[in-house]
Amino acid sequence: MLSRWSGQQEAALWQMTERKTVGQRIAGYSKSARIEAKFFLFALAPFVLLMISDELGWSRGAVWHGWFWLCATWAVFVLTNGFAAMWRALRRSTQRKR
């Protein structure tokens, strides 16, 4: 899934930089923004359980803290993949112009 989104990010960035009309470039920007939102939401999805547990008044024991650190690690992993995909797409789109 992450590799597919990375490919979509590259295609959207190429569309933003290589297309001729303003409408096509703006469409590439909106695609890129949607893909960035997918990465962000996928990274933050496990935190929903933590938010629900706080609203229900459950205690913050060892399981809660373990899940928090697991979620934090997951978020860093997914967001790092998202930023790497964006950076790779940017680098490839600038190399095509040479």
Description:
- The two termini are 31 Å apart.
- α1 runs parallel beside α4.
- The chain has helices spanning 2-18, 22-44, 47-56, 62-96.
- It has 98 residues and is mainly α.
- The chain is elongated.
- The protein has one domain.
Characterize this entry briefly:
This protein has helices at residues 2-18, 22-44, 47-56, 62-96. The protein has 98 residues and is mostly helical.
Helix-strand layout with pairing:
Layout: H1 2-18, H2 22-44, H3 47-56, H4 62-96
From the spread of the alpha carbons, the general shape counts as elongated
Strand content: under 5%
Q: Largest sheet at a glance?
A: none
* Main structural class: mainly alpha
Give the total of domains: 1
Count the helices. How many? 4
Q: Assign a percent range to the helix content.
A: over 70%
Distance N to C terminus: 31 Å
- Helix-strand string: HHHH
List keywords for this structure.
98 residues; mainly alpha; 87% helix
